[in-house]
Design goal:
By secondary structure, this protein is an all-alpha fold. The chain has helices at 12-25, 40-55, 63-91, 93-100, 109-131, 133-164, 179-190, 202-236, 251-271, 275-316, 330-346, 349-379.
Length: 387
């Protein structure tokens, strides 16, 4: 995704420190200098293929094996990126600090959380076929814990920086601002996978209600930001061509929240302590999954149509490839899992068809983004200094 839009004016002392650091470390691992946190979006976009494909209502021969391959690709890409980003912080600390102080880049730290969570969840969805259930539980426990902690930190730290350090104006609002606050929603959607592997009683109930709390945290924060984003479009016109694909990021909290309420409703009967509490709330939570999910999915389809129209306009205007194209993958994938959850709870075939159609769109977007990313890496263009 794009890593530059607004750059803060450095202070005199900060500039001097940056020059000193650059002079001593910029020559080391030069290819990593401009590797930003936005690259984690490629891991998210690959992992969601595995997770969404394995949960589709329709399963074709060989589909699960293909999902396993995508999970291995995502896990491998995550390991490579974690190593590369560690090198970035080690050798280019000045640039890493500049990323945190850039309001166009800092929100992408939410992608680190979501990449960890997506690969961790995939371990229990399809990875367990390859590494076994105990290993899959261990992997997801580590990645879920780390991803949730980073996501909650980003949900606080990035808005804090935007308030006290970043200098932003209304016309600079983009859907990228959603990334740090939507990360806890991914935890809410994937946390239920661990519930059956926790001790019955308090541990399961705490996980269930903790996931509902993260659902609420992310949902309310999203509702605060969406008017800013839509207002920017109405009053200041279309986004720059390179940022147009980020309009699809709005689908992330919509599809992921629908996925979350359906997954949590599935786990409620075995999570709530005591027969009376389980009987009192399980039915209500199942009803909430449908009452909430159906209207939100309707709005997601409305936004999908608007974003697709804007994307077509940008393509006609000469939009070239950028890492922003990965915004066409993970958010659409969350709508796939959301539609699949609604199909499971309503029994309505239309939701199954919707999930399948969105999955085909997801596959197409992934092929385009992956092919162009590999080409950009081969030529070195994607790791070059931004112009």
């Amino acid at each position: 995704m794009a890593t530059t839009l607004v750059h803060p004016a450095p202070t005199t002392s900060g500039t001097g420190a940056a020059r000193a650091t650059t002079g001593t470390t910029a020559h080391k691992a030069p290819s990593l200098r401009h590797l930003g946190p936005n690259w984690y979006a490629s891991v998210m976009g690959t992992a969601i293929i595995a997770n969404a494909g394995a949960t589709l209502p329709y399963q074709l021969p060989g589909q699960r094996v293909a999902c396993q391959i995508f999970w291995v690709l995502a896990a491998t890409a995550l390991a490579v990126l974690l190593t590369a980003r560690a090198g970035h912080w080690l050798h280019h600390r000045d640039q890493a600090r500049a990323h945190l102080l850039d309001p166009a880049v800092a929100p992408f730290y939410g992608c680190l959380s979501m990449a960890l969570l997506a690969v961790g969840g995939g371990a229990l969805i399809v990875g367990k076929d390859l590494i076994g259930v105990p290993a899959a539980v261990a992997v997801d426990t580590v990645l879920f814990t780390a991803g949730t902690a980073i996501g909650l930190l980003a949900a606080v730290a990035v808005p804090y920086l935007m308030v006290v350090r970043h200098k932003v104006e209304a016309h600079q609002a983009t859907p990228v601002w959603l990334l740090p606050v939507v990360a806890p929603m991914v935890s809410a959607a994937l946390g239920p996978l661990l519930i059956p592997h926790l001790p019955a009683g308090q541990a399961r109930e705490a996980m269930l209600l903790g996931c509902y709390a993260m659902f609420g945290l992310s949902l309310l924060a999203t509702l605060l930001l969406l008017p800013l984003i839509f207002g920017r479009l109405i009053f200041h016109g279309p986004l720059p061509l390179v940022l147009t694909p980020t309009l699809f990021l709005v689908l992330g909290p919509l599809g992921q929240s629908t996925t979350a309420v359906n997954s949590l409703a599935d786990m409620a009967p075995q999570s709530l302590a005591g027969q009376s509490m389980a009987g009192r709330y399980s039915g209500a939570l199942s009803a909430f999954a449908v009452v909430y999910g159906v209207p939100v999915m309707g709005f997601a389809l409305l936004w999908l149509a608007l974003a697709a129209a804007m994307l077509l306009r940008a393509a006609r205007g000469g939009m070239g490839f950028a890492m922003t194209w990965w915004a066409l993958t993970f958010p659409v994938g969350t709508c796939v899992t959301g539609a699949a959850g609604l199909a499971r709870h309503t029994g309505l075939a239309a939701f199954s068809w919707l999930a399948a159609a969105l999955f085909l769109a997801l596959l197409t977007a992934w092929l385009l983004a992956a092919a162009n990313t590999l080409r950009g890496l081969r030529t070195g263009r994607l790791l070059a200094a931004p112009r």
